Records
---
Amino acid sequence: MNVSRILQIATAGYLVLVGFVTLRTQPVDPPEVGPIWFVLHFLGRHTLTSWITFDRAEFFGNVTMFVPIGLLLTLLLGRRRWWLVLLIGALMTCGIEFAQRYIAGRVSDLRDLVSNSIGTVVGVVTAAVVFRLHDRLLRSRAAVQRSPVDGLPAAHR
């Protein structure tokens, strides 16, 4: 199985997971119940972590959820189509927020549009770093292959 096929499967699987998380009739953790609320209440009782509120955790969670979307789509579509990945991320976010207006127990929120878009941008930037590291690796391998017979890398000539 080649890398492109693995990326296609990983991207499709992750998009299904995001759809499941964002388009269910109930949020992942019902209000005031479950492990997320337990952690938030625990953090709220301590001075150093009392700033971590549900709204901030949700914002960070939304950013984090969309980073893989930006990363996987950029790796799949290629570095020159980064702008298309940003567009797809924004359209996905708008679609999710629109659908949530009509799903019981869900709330459509402008902050989600912002946080999801930030996550997509972070994913695209992460993919750019991956592409750059990959290019460097290829260049260094090519330099080693061009080195003299004694095996010294080209940088040591």
Note: The chain has a mean pLDDT of 87.
---
Amino acid sequence: MKKITGVLLVLAMVASAAFAGGAKDGAAGAKIGVSMPTQSLQRWNQDGANMKAQLEKAGYKVDLQYAGDNDIPTQVAQIENMIVGGCKVLVIAAIDGSSLTEVLKDAKAKKIPVIAYDRLIMNSDAVSYYASFDNFKVGVIQGEYLRDKLALKTASGPFNMELITGDPGDNNAGFFFNGALSILKPYIDSGKIVIKSGQTTFAQVATPSWSTEEAQKRIENIVTSVGYGPKGVKLDAVMASNDSTAQGVTNALVGAGYTKANFPLLTGQDCDKASVKNMLLGLQSMSIFKDTRTLADLQQRNGNHSLIPLRTGIRHRRQLQEASHRQRLLQRIRRSDLIVTVF
């Protein structure tokens, strides 16, 4: 299973046979159920809207549902309704990868293909495909950024760092965290990086629902207990797995008196508008932009039952040249010395 998971994380899956044939089949009115976890994070709003737009452009009907604010019973009920309502394919970004076992039995019984979108669905044999980015690589890039900015290969240190990642029920959170630790752990073991809170395991640094508020509370507690501050114990960096947790870190550190002049290095992911603005203000150091439109496009364009590698790396800058406010902010950042990595 681990080998299969590893392969799937490096590959983006194409959509099921229901998508084969493209617009002609879509025009026949097949209904696609799209289940997203929450509207409280910018990226899920964008993912849902992008997928709906592309599927409808291809001629499909789309039942797009958001599960409140990461509410598992709501997501289960919505998926049940999609099954009963005649959806021919289900695309699901699970809140908790282990919470959908029973409802997906009904999908399998009705031979409805299930695509796990960005988050792997566990404990179910009903999943036909899994579409995602190389999430371990995301963490590696964050770890490499901190390693290079702190000059860990050559500097004597020690450097004080704290760690924060996402929801323990989100399979991706573990990959982000382990990817970053694959770079940082040797320096932690050698003492060049010091985690003064003592919180170094995934369970200790996980954030329920990727909540900005929960992240802020945890970092505030750490700041108080350790004595971090511009006039206290120096904090050199925070490894945050995504932007919503990074925003919580920023809120906590600004509340502790940090400014652009003394702000620690802080990683992120998703290039949310709030984090892009924080980068411009010097209150976040970097973010990773994964163009999730690529996943939506794959799901409506392809249906050949094959694994298609999704190339990772730096895309051409012109992919950022759109007329949205966020994209204009990204343009400004790329002209500065801040780093925005684009998948």
Note: The chain has a mean pLDDT of 81.
---
Amino acid sequence: MSERDDLRDAAGHGAIGGVAAFDRGAYGVGSSEIEPDAVGYRLSPISRLTRNFLMIAVFFSGWAVLRIGEINLTLSDVFLALVILVMLSRGEINKKPFGNLTAFWLIGLGLMLLGLLVSTIVNGSVERWLIVSAQYLFALLLVPMLLAGQPVSLTRILPPIFVFGIVISQLIGISAMALFENADTRDLLGDGFLTGNGRLGAMTGEPNPNGAMVAMALPMLIHSVRQGTIPLAIGVVCGLLLAWGLLSSGSFTGFVAATAALAVYLAISGLKPLVYTFAIGAMATGLFLASGLPLPEAFDARVVGALSTGNLDSAGTFTGRSRLIAEAWAMADDNIFIGLGVDQFREVSIYGAPVHHLHLLIWNEGGIIAFVGLFILLLTMLAIAFVTISKRRPEGAMILSVIVVFNVYTFSIPHMYSRLWILPVLLAICTCFARNASKGSYANEMADQR
């Protein structure tokens, strides 16, 4: 990944099968998108290795089951860390991953961590702050710099790799549901892979995060089919597996997030994807209804029940989360300037659990300084999406749709420093905000924002 290495497209060097085919489909020889200076150069062994490591990390980014011990470190994290170390040693980290908007991103991240630090010094354990801040810095600082340090020709094939990782996760989970029960898989894959009440967590390890991964993968899939990085026939199969995985997760939040993401992408990206998606969806729905097959029990009980009756209690843990949210609102006035400190909400809560609402958790644990920091981070994400929409509508639509999913889950998840939450957002963003690999490429249009 030296200057000369950057002139060579990533096609043909992928560790995940089919990467070369993806790249040829979207940026084949003779197209206006391929880097004209690329022909004739080969990647160095270290560059090829780090790119393969990055693609492996992206493929497994939604597979939280592949965790190292009980700590929040996955197989994907290990490969990301290895790539970051190599890029740091070679001075290839992009210090302005979001162009001029990077300043706002850093201010937001700094304020959030500062508020949590001050509150933790007063009320909590600084050791715990060090652990949590390291997780946030890895996810929100180093990973963006890593991805934006790649040539755009590589970053544009990373979303399809992510999609295939989630598709294979659903395939494994759906197959396991047909063959096994919770007791059969619990010891090897954890209690959330197949839950006792018949919900699918797949390789993500829990049903609700699994619903989030599917919701983020769906607009990426449609965009990849549109761009030619995934062939239509393969895309239809992937879409069916993702849809069935989403239904099997029985996640009300996942269903709402996926619906919102698809609506945003199709509304912004243009008429053609809307027509194709509607036609394929209508055909698939018709075939399913004609088959007489039942919906997954978890989806029927939790999501259909909640939608048909308007009673969100049937959506599962909604009542418990609502009580935590009400408690957090009541506590917020006492934690305006100095919060409770990192991970202290669960200690003072009468329910003994963190509130599943990122905004309220950050406010209560870090005070208004941390909350303002979080708010700036979320606004910066939206600004990045709208800047991209103004220059390249399809990519901007994909970025915004994935950000919508992320924002939906900020209202149902506590701390979101696990890379599986932010990496899909960054993958979408860095299809455009990446290293300028050649003159005249779209990356240079985004460079105007730097």
Note: The two ends are 21 Å apart (CA to CA).
